[in-house]
Amino acid sequence: MKWKEKIIGLQSYQPGRTINEVKQAYGLENITKLASNENPYGYSPTVRKALQEGTTQFELYPDGAASSLKKALSDYLQLPTEQIILGNGSDDLLSIISRSLLQPGNNTVMANPSFSQYKHNATVEGAEIREVPLVDGKHDLPAMLEAIDEDTAVVWVCSPNNPTGVYITSEELTAFLDDVPRDVLVVLDEAYREYVTAEDYPDSLELIKRYPNLIAVRTFSKIYGLASFRVGYGYGNLDIISQLEPVRQPFNVNTLGQAVGEIALGDQDFIKDCREKNRKGLEQFYSFCEREGLHYFPSQANFILMDVKADANKAFEYLMSKGYIIRSGQALGFPTYIRVTVGSAEENEGFLEQLQGFLETQRTGKLA
Ligand SMILES: *Cc1c(COP(=O)(O)O)cnc(C)c1O
Fold this sequence. Notes:
This protein is α/β, with parallel strands linked by helices. It has helices spanning 19-26, 45-53, 67-77, 90-101, 116-125, 141-147, 170-179, 204-210, 238-244, 255-265, 268-292, 312-321, 345-367; strands at residues 32-33, 84-87, 107-112, 128-133, 152-158, 185-189, 214-219, 232-236, 303-307, 324-325, 327-328, 337-341. The longest helix is centred in the C-terminal third of the chain and has 25 residues, at 268-292.
């Protein structure tokens, strides 16, 4: 077979372990999954109601233009529908962007560690990958600027960054965008935007008006609690969106996804409530880390990356045996850190109790 050279040996995405797998492997009744940054409060009750009463016409193709959801987003964002593109999750949009711009002979710039799919897609497309190390969990934007040359097609900016939760300020981002050449697409991945409370976080809706080479990407998978429906959206200058549109699959957002996305968008009280609860949850983690003397990155997202001062895979295994699924930093570029999704107050408390237990085994292990 004439495989693309770059995909030989490429690893598929390693999802967090599922609740059922862990139940079976450890013989546990109750499992709490704090591994994939899903919403511990589920989704809006308005969505629940609509799903109970909803459509059953599953033999029909979805509306390929997703007109109704697009109209709702257009009202919500105060942007013309032509400046919005929908994806089968924002992952789909990242892939559409990569397919449209990356190829052998050009390059793409990203932070490291950051969201794994930027690199993955670039590998599939055969573009050269330029990774710029984070500084204190944050993108080193001046160094990323330096990595850009005339063959750079796309720059990926993730804020708040996954896996650190650290965000880029408005001032930092505009200084960066001022200097990026106009023929380089900047992708601002705002998967956790709705969790942000920092006042100097940039307003991407304003920025796309000033920077014609910027696209922002958001999702219904995180705070909206609709990960299984696979709906994401992007917005930017008309020229960018109209060039990306023909590259997407014709029916990339399914009927139920379109319906629930629109309904979820209409319940911003739920979003606000989740954001506030998440803030309080982060405080539980912060006080624990401070009490235990563990380094952590201050987070604007719904997860926290914390140093357990031990092999993260060991912490991962221990916590899983106690019924908590989290992410080991080993695969995320932080070998002694764990990434934990902020759960409900009770989940966080239960988790931190077990983490305390792990830290004690480490201490006594060391003394023995
Ligand atoms: C979760 C996540 C995504 C992908 O979300 P979808 O479910 O595909 O919408 C994209 N970017 C980042 C940084 C994420 O954490």
